[in-house]
Amino acid sequence: MPARISALTGRSSFICAQCRKALTAPKRRRLLSTSPKTPEIYDVVTVGGGPAGLALLAALKSSPVTSHLKTALIEIQDLTKPRQWSSPGDQFSNRASSFTPSSVSFLETTGSWAHVDQTRIQAYDEMQVWDAANDASIQFDWNAETQKYNAPPQTIATMCENANLTRGLLERIVELGAGSSLFSSTSVSSIENGVDDPEGLNLSTWPVLSLESQSQPHSQSQSAGQPPSDTPNPTPTNIAARLLVGADGFNSPVRAFAGINSSGWDYNRHGVVATLTLQPADSNTATDRTHDFDLFSSEPLPNRATAYQRFLPQLGGPIAILPLPHDRASMVWSTTPANAAYLKSLPPSAQVAMINAALRLSQTDLKYLLSLPAHSHSDSAKTDTDADTDANVQHETELRWRLEHTDSAPADLTRQQPPPFVTGIQENSLASFPLRFRHATSLINPRVALIGDAAHTIHPLAGQGLNLGLADAKSLAECIAYSVSHGMDVGDAMALERYSSARFGRGLMMAGGVDVLNSLYQLGSGGDGMLASVVGQARGLGMKVVNQLVPGLKGLIMRQAS
Amino acid sequence: MRATTPSSLTRLLALPSPLRVRTFSVLSRPPPNYPGHIPLTIPERLSLAAGSAIGSLFNPYRHDLIASLGETTAKPYFLSRLHRAMLNNPTGRRILRDRPRITSKSMKLEELRHMPENSVGRAYAAWLDREGVTPDTRDAVRYIDDPEEAYVMQRYRETHDFTHAITGLPVIIEGELAVKAFEFANTLLPMTALSLVAIVRLKKVERQRFFEVYMPWALRNGLKAEEVINVYWEEELETDVEVLRARLGIEKPPDLRDIRKALREQKRKEREAKEAAG
């Protein structure tokens, strides 16, 4: 116990060795000023300006408990472009995601959902899932509950373009006055532990980021009339983070810095995305895309929109059609890289034929269609001979012939609608990305937390990937708020345990569950043999059981997924 | 008014339609999917299969029983597999598009007899003449529900004679059993395997010959050959038989009629020698 020191009077009691050294040392310890070498200290530094990182920042800034924290968000791309994103009303980006009610509720609470363009989102009330290997199907909807209470249809999920959400989040962040936290066009050249400055701070356990600005002198963008609060400060070169949040995607440098491994596997599949135009179903359902329901009607209230997913085990995965406004839809088709390359090489009319075929024809017919020579549209510069025209329409003629002979009415016709007809595909919207499964071995380390794709990447068949990221952001924001309101260091490992215990198990179970589902629906993919047929029928029996026989099982699944 | 939802117990006890065994009753048969179609319930199908099997075993000339045996045992998997084999092959797809039928009108024997020597058409006409049959003896398919699968069954039936023609096997029981064994290995239809029960009707010598020569030939060639259902016979009439056999991967088996004739000659000579001696 050090004795009291009276430096003025020189009267001394016992002085411990360290204090004596400190007092007698010739140099004085700086307490309130930082040396030029000391990096600027931020409370929460988020690396990555994707939906998860931006949602976390918006959540922190919108809550009165955490809005005073000094935050930074580092993003390598120029964030002015996403802020200024706009698109004609009838064109939709091919990166659109399905947002569960929990995600939407989180975005509403933080005030970001109000900035999302509501004319470009589509809530859907029903999801139909069926399998090409059998005639079973499952309809996911809340009808059983809503009919009990004579209520309008309850949303399963809402489709929204990723760019629409990002713009909304950025606008909310700026509205909250946190535009200065955004370090756009900045790359992180390295992350290291800080140094223990003997006359300054001991940052040896703190992450210190070296930033490099990628932008050119921005005289033009700054003269575009941005209010002063938006203009970011000149980028400092070194910043230290009390809590470093990795929202930087699949190959997360933050995760690498923290030494956290990420295990998993590549699916050897590509997700082919596109924006499609659908044939309007009937005249009366076309007008029911509004959110108004006639609550006094004695008719069952119609669904606003329906999502469709058809599993194609022999072709590598499911094709999903997710509705967008104005009879548009977003397609995600998980298939082998060879099939993805083939689809990309087809002319648009053949692509439309292939998508219609994928929703209706047998897998044998689909495999045959995928083996037809792809007539590349670069050859259209040549004069069209008859052979060329025939080759051009091969897919359509095959489709039309096979549709006549394919029994598309499944055995169970209780409430099912047939899948929609695709009439067009938006120009240049067909693209593909590789599918992978990864999960970090830990979500936290001292002073490090991971959210979004840095923590986990999953198969898109359940539409849960982005929702997991948003749930992580919500949970981490709550954890930070708890730490702040209880006077704890937000980056302390024990404080972060709260976040990890809330999200690690949940995220892993969702990722693992989706992976098991994917494997289940790839069984019987090895050819047309008897075993494959039996496996397909067994799976169909399982689907029928889930759909009708076991009461409450479907509701349980839907509750988990929302 | 909305219907009240049934309680969970009622729902558990009443199996939903996909899990129920019978999908329609005999008093309310669904309408036919093509002319001549007769939808059957599952007990009807099983009893027809059993009856046809026993009946055709006792009287192998009852081609209608063999036909109904084939149709009632071909579903759920085997006919679909054959259908898929046709869809996977470009020629098979063309056959399904064009749907050619083999009748005495479409296969004019006069023209076939004048085709080049060793052509498929000539071999077919020669075989028909040798065995004394015409292309018209095939029954129409009735008990298959899907019209396209019904056509596949019909096509199999009508091209059965072509299989005889290019292998040279005769219509006697031994020859038919050899062709059926070949067809089982090639098409996997259960009726072809069930027909092999008729081996019990063969004489001892014939049975021995069958197991030694013809069944091994049939199984070996049926497995390694291409799917014979995918051959567009109407286009192959002028092809050389050897060329077609080589393309399909089929060896010609020993001529059965010649073997039997040689054996009969040998027996006759022995009998005469015995009578002359005794």
Automatic annotation (TrEMBL), chain A:
Q: Where is this region: Disordered?
A: 211-238
Q: What are the entry keywords?
A: FAD, Flavoprotein, Membrane, Mitochondrion, Mitochondrion inner membrane, Monooxygenase, Oxidoreductase, Ubiquinone, Ubiquinone biosynthesis
Here the segments flagged for biased composition (Low complexity) are: 213-228
Where does the record place it? Mitochondrion inner membrane
Cofactor(s) of this protein: FAD
Primary site of residence: mitochondrion
Alphabetical list of InterPro entries matching this protein? FAD-bd, FAD/NAD-bd_sf, Ubi_Hdrlase_CS, UbiH/COQ6, UbiH/COQ6_monooxygenase, UbQ_mOase_COQ6
| Enzyme Commission (EC) number | 1.14.15.45, 1.14.15.46
What is its pathway? Cofactor biosynthesis; ubiquinone biosynthesis
* Residue stretches making up the FAD-binding domain: 426-502
Q: Which reaction does this chain catalyze? A: a 2-methoxy-6-(all-trans-polyprenyl)phenol + 2 reduced [2Fe-2S]-[ferredoxin] + O2 + 2 H(+) = a 2-methoxy-6-(all-trans-polyprenyl)benzene-1,4-diol + 2 oxidized [2Fe-2S]-[ferredoxin] + H2O; a 4-hydroxy-3-(all-trans-polyprenyl)benzoate + 2 reduced [2Fe-2S]-[ferredoxin] + O2 + 2 H(+) = a 3,4-dihydroxy-5-(all-trans-polyprenyl)benzoate + 2 oxidized [2Fe-2S]-[ferredoxin] + H2O
One GO cellular component this record assigns the protein to is: extrinsic component of mitochondrial inner membrane
Q: Show the HAMAP family listed in the entry.
A: COQ6_monooxygenase
> Function of this protein?
FAD-dependent monooxygenase required for two non-consecutive steps during ubiquinone biosynthesis. Required for the C5-ring hydroxylation during ubiquinone biosynthesis by catalyzing the hydroxylation of 4-hydroxy-3-(all-trans-polyprenyl)benzoic acid to 3,4-dihydroxy-5-(all-trans-polyprenyl)benzoic acid. Also acts downstream of coq4, for the C1-hydroxylation during ubiquinone biosynthesis by catalyzing the hydroxylation of 2-methoxy-6-(all-trans-polyprenyl)phenol to 2-methoxy-6-(all-trans-polyprenyl)benzene-1,4-diol.
| Entry similarity comment | Belongs to the UbiH/COQ6 family.
Q: What is this protein called?
A: Ubiquinone biosynthesis monooxygenase COQ6, mitochondrial
UniProtKB/TrEMBL annotation, chain B:
Query: Which domain of life does this protein belong to?
Result: Eukaryota
Q: Keywords of this protein's UniProt record, alphabetized?
A: Ubiquinone
In Swiss-Prot or TrEMBL terms, this protein is called Ubiquinone biosynthesis protein
